[in-house]
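Known limitations

Files may contain more than one protein. Parsers should not assume a single record per file. Below, a two-record file is shown to illustrate correct handling: read the sequence, read the token line, then continue until end of file.
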Amino acid sequence: MSDSQSDSDLADIRAQKRSELKQKLTEDDTANNEATTARTPTDPIHINSADEFNAAVTEHDVVLVDFYADWCGPCQMLEPTVKSLAAETAATVLKVDIDQHQSLAQQYQVRGVPTLLLFNDAETVEEIVGVRDESTLRSLIQQYTH
């Protein structure tokens, strides 16, 4: 076997191994993304108790909480944005009706609706009062999910 042929064979083997490694890394990334997506609900979670709220904030890394009221016009305007963020971001989205859960609203000093709180690792990192556009909220979430 000549040196040029063995060099060529080595190059072919290296190329094959690189290709196999790239494919394995791609498969691993896909599996990790699917696992993350499976853990993050794609619909907003309507909170029924303070315990449920605390468990959700603790269980998930990034949580967007929408404090709202059924009678609130701006809250109704924000609803499609909140649903979209739940479906299309890595944040878990919680909905808290301030009329049903006044103690939670008081605990988080909600003075107006809609109020959005963003939690990262169970700590409040952002507070948004009023309606904001989806791209602004999406950018805010992405600061903590990447």
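...continuing to the second record:
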Amino acid sequence: MKSKSLILVIILMLVFACKDQPKTDVETTEQETETNKNTNSLKGTWELVGFYNYNDNVVVDSFSNNTISRQVKIYTDSKVMWCKLLKTDSIEFFGFGSYDYDDGHLTEVLDFGSAFMNEVIAENKEFNFELELSEDRFEQIELDDDGNKIYSENYVRIE
């Protein structure tokens, strides 16, 4: 009987000794930082929902995309691909390349695309935008040579 009690005590001690320890403040802060990075990340699938036109860096006009066409962008860790469904031509428009974003700026460098886009890429393969990013929405804003806002494409996260 003593040996059974001793074995039970040893088992209980092992169970309690192996129990998860509370997280330290450093571990908690690291996890929160990683969560915030993922929350405001471009990684995912986005659908174009509308546009803004600017004058003197102020929105002066906005319109929806749902009646014109459908456009989706997919960002992985380092790659971007977008496609636009046009009712008149099912093989135009798409582009594929790499991207980088930091400190409110987005750069996409396209490697190839549809026939029309390959003509554009032959002239310029790097596209720079101002970026306004939140958890489920982003705006890529085209700037003129003086840094003034011209127009933006506005996306919502769909995955």
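Parsers that stop after the first record will miss the second one. For reference, the second record is described as follows. The beta strands are 44-55, 58-64, 70-75, 79-85, 94-102, 105-113, 126-134, 137-143, 149-157.
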